[in-house]
Amino acid sequence: MKLKKTLVLFMVAAMMSVAVAGCSKAGNDNTAGGNSSETAAGDENDTSSKEEVVTLKWIMVGNNMPSNYDAWLAKLNPYLEEKIGVNIEVEIVSWGDWDTRRSIIVNSGENFDILFTDSNKYNNEVSLGAFLDITELIKSAAPDLYSYIPADYWDAVSVNGKIYSVPTYKDSSATQYFVWDKAIVDKYSVDYENINTLAGLSDILKTIKEGEGTAPLVLDKIGMEVIASVYDQMGVGLPALGVRYDDQSRKVVNVLEQEDVLSQLDIIHGWYNDGIINADAPAVAEVPTYRMFYVAQGWSGAAETTWGPNAGMEAVTSKFIDTIVSNSTVRGSLNGISSSSKYPEKCLEFLQLVNLDSKVRDAFYYGLEGENFNYTDNGEIEKLNNDWSMAGYTQATFFTVSKLASDEFNQWDEVKELNANANSSVLLGFNLDTSNIETELANCRSIYEKYRSELMTGAREPRELVKKISDELDESGFQTIVKEAQSQIDAMYNK
Predict the structure, then answer these.
(1) Rounded to two decimals, what is the model's pTM?
(2) How much is the pLDDT for 39?
(3) CATH superfamily placement of domain 33-42+52-170+332-398
């Protein structure tokens, strides 16, 4: 699939001047920013010439709140006020708490303006009414952003023909890599460039385990769920359901029962028994910063720019799974606007700004200028440390992030090339209407979640466990889901 590659270099900005307004900080006020605007500075009785500055609350996942959040906000908000008349209030939820926190937010009706989401929960959150339908509003409130993001991506995030989120235009295709600490590679003479399968890893990981005296593959409770990523899961948040991305017959299957997945689960279980995987993996909420080997989605240049520096090591990589673009990969990073936000237009103006204004984009991606990074004379980035704890992939496009001065290449060029040359899923652009199967999906998601950690970390014998999971799925309506999905797929592709 050939995706649009034209970048918008400048956004249209012709906003009225606004006065500086105070803003509450995340964590001190649980009301939505959209529900707590403040009076402009100056004479409280003379506001006729002042435009109200609204505060928007954005909740997303990352490595907890930055330690210099207040100073960062104090520098960013005046610029946002000047450009579009908003202040931003950000809540960063830790990885280990994210699933629970986002469920509370959505199910309790907690106030927010913008919420990060992804393919695991997006459809369910839409069905619960958490997000606003922005199908038409995005075109008027953020026209430059709408034009900038490829049309295929808007199709990919549509639910029943309507748009409920802004996709993050980044490595929106998915490429999986084995990531190694080069010191370990050198110590054990690992021929990493020629290892591209789980089977090919077994002997060397066992050797490293014996040599280092510890598990070389440290997993959290999500485990190696990536092995199922060659199946298009249709964006319903149920990894047990899918169509293999290259299956021209488009047959809907129980992914866990497929031999290409089962054989890899066998390997993972063997690793767990051999101590290659940490014994506490099923209960681990977050992996440590340093790992001598792991699997990650990204691009090869991330070894130099992200994976290595963040872990305090020199990293090297080899590709594990070919690049695939599907609805699910595009939905890997989304931002939805609350259906109860008082300021949906401002939310979209803000998302347009954070995507297309490099100064704002850099602030979210790199942190506080002067403390986390500096600009060089030619506008490139000199990082001062790796302390910034926001997750860059959750926020906005990668392609307006300023280049690191230390990079010999522009890593974003590689990302764009991966997107452009990705293998398209046979279901790219297909959107499953789940209105008739919501109950079955909810029940089946609960069953999968109950067993996921033990299955995907190798803690239990996979073939017996898969049989147990499949039996419980079928009892909860899984075959009804399969039949409905297959019917819709056949209707679209077999005309």
Answers:
(1) 0.72
(2) 32
(3) Periplasmic binding protein-like II (3.40.190.10)
